[in-house]
Amino acid sequence: MEKLYFIPGSQDLYGEECLKQVAADCRKMVGFLNEKLSDTIRIELLPTVETSKICVEDMKKVMCDDDCVGVITWMHTFSPAKMWIKGLQLLNKPMLHLHTQANEKLPYGEIDMDFMNLNQAAHGDREFGYILARLHIPHEVAAGYYQHEDVIARIRRFAQVAKAIALSKNLRVATFGNNMRDVAVTDGNRLSCEIQYGWEIKYWGIGEIADLAGRVTDEEIDAQMAEYLSRYTMDTDNTEAVREQARYEIAFRKFLKENGCQAFTDTFQDLHGLNQLPGIAAQDIMAKGVGFGPEGDYKIAAFSAVLMKMAEGREGATGFIEDYTYDLTPGKELELASHMLEVPASFAATKPKIQVHPLGIGGKADPARLVFDSVTGDGIQCTLIDLGDHFRIICADIELVPVPQPMPKLPVAQIMYRHKPSFQIGTAAWCYAGGAHHSVVSTALTRADIALFAKLTGSELITIGDDTTEADLEKFYMAR
Ligand code: MN
Fold first, then answer.
1. 300 alpha carbon – ligand 1 mean position (Å)
2. 441: which of 80, 257, 335, 383 is 20 to 30 A away, CA to CA?
């Protein structure tokens, strides 16, 4: 399991007794947090920073440990921040500055100068906050007594976001074909993606998959079909079309595994050697936590993999979604998302049905796909766009709702949502902000998770929700 290193700060001015107490309190704190967070992360205590040399040694350990996804720092006493400079300059993993104390309450009857010298986070953590600001070190602050539930929840969130950032830094995206001809929002600067987020966007021809698919054995397809039938209901006589998708799924998974990729794209404009657009194949692979972007959208493929990692261990669904069409009934406006095929099976509220229908574009054979009703409830819709000189993340609160009426002639998974604070402001805000029609929807993540990711990766963030007003639209417009 991934870990965080816990680095406390002090100095050698207060004597041996005080430093022993600092170490003992930190051990107790780390033990407590490990118990509370054992389902998410491990925390390991490093030597208390008393000198610049110890700080550098601690940070080297952080940097060299591949299991370590970030650090927690806390100034038990005052810790003059000049001795943190050289260490902090080495750090390139996420940091949580835990602004807390070993004691919850002040011992009013007992407090003396020894207590004051030992327990002075209000003093030391401000010195530390100053040097983080001075050095422009991205970080999160969690303030409060470490045993309080709200503080533990903040540490948990930080750990989940740090794990997602660690995945991001090592993420490889396989793009099969390029992005869809003439489409703007799916294009951008792949090099900037790698510099800022670590995403290696690697091109291969779809022929690689066609070749692999051609070598998949009947036994492998039988096994994949058995897996489908254990989770999905067969609702077609065209078994051959479904077996064809099973063949693609096996080929994609083999290729991704062999090449160390956790995300991929395809495009209906380049299916040379395949006779269907991957439908159930893509839907099923996404449900296994692999990022996906259709039409060559490498950004959303990578971003969906990162956000699925962030949501790991939480209730709810997370995955790629496309915006399509609206019901504009006044006061009851809704959006219907999911036009083509590629809705992740993780959004299914009912047992998905395997069906085969024509696609309408692309000129290939009718693809097999999963058709289902979506989970409902509060969620977010989140996208990442390339503005040429920087990336922008846009995150809107939405409510996933049941479909108001059946749509028997629409043979795709159906996801409907309500925009916040209203259709008019919510969707106008998204348009002003330049938000794409490809995004990641999640009923597991919140705006606070995305805001933390944006903060720790130095990304611009625009959020939309019940607190968004008409006046904010001007702001989003001016942010172009
Ligand atoms: Mn699209």
1. 11
2. 257
Q: Tokens at residue 378, please?
A: 């509060």
CA of residue 28 to ligand 1 center, whole Å: 51
Nearest to 308 by CA among 99, 122, 205, 167: 167
* Closest residue by Cα to residue 173 from 273, 260, 274: 260
pLDDT, average across residues 370-382: 97
What is d(CA 345, CA 359) in angstroms, rounded to the nearest whole number?
Answer: 19
In 78-155 the beta strands, taken as DSSP E runs, fall at 95-99, 140-143
In 328-420, beta strands by DSSP E: 334-337, 353-356, 368-371, 377-386, 391-401, 415-419
CA of 55 to the centre of ligand 1 (A): 48
Helix (H) or strand (E) holding 469: none
Strands (E) located in 147-199: 172-176
CA of 327 to the centre of ligand 1 (A): 20
Closest CA to 278 of 342, 217, 190, 233: 342
pLDDT tens-digit map of 421-439: 999 999 999 999 999 999 9
- How far, in Å, are 59, 280, 281, 283, 386 from residue 356 at the CA level? 55, 10, 13, 14, 36
Q: Identify the residue whose tokens are 């794990």.
A: 163
Cβ atoms of 272 and 356 closer than 8 Å: no
Which two tokens mark 407?
Answer: 């749509």
**Strand ranges (E), 252-301:** 263-265, 291-293
- Given a cut of 80, whether residue 339 has pLDDT beyond it is no
Looking at residue 82, the DSSP 8-state letter turns out to be G
Residues facing 96 on adjacent strands: 72, 140
Closest CA to 423 of 343, 331, 288, 340: 331
25 — pLDDT class (breaks 50, 70, 90): very high
Distance separating alpha carbons of residues 8 and 338, to the nearest angstrom:
49
Whether the link from the prior residue into 421 is cis, omega within 30° of 0, is yes
Sole residue written with tokens 């030597």: 47
- Alpha-carbon dihedral of residues 59, 60, 66, 71, nearest 10 degrees? 0
325 Cα to the center of ligand 1, angstroms: 13
Tell me whether strands 353-356 and 415-419 are parallel, antiparallel or unpaired.
unpaired
The confidence band for 361, taking pLDDT boundaries of 50, 70 and 90, is confident
In angstroms, the CA 187 to CA 286 distance is 22
Listed residue (317, 27, 299) closest to 190, CA to CA: 299
Compute the distance from residue 340 Cα to the ligand 1 centre, in Å. 8
Q: Can you tell me the distance from the alpha carbon of 362 to that of 453, in angstroms, rounded to the nearest whole number?
A: 37
Three-class secondary structure of residue 393 per DSSP: strand
In the reported structure, the alpha carbon of residue 459 is separated from the centroid of ligand 1 by a whole-number distance in angstroms of: 23
* Rounded Cα distance, 239 and 93, in Å: 49
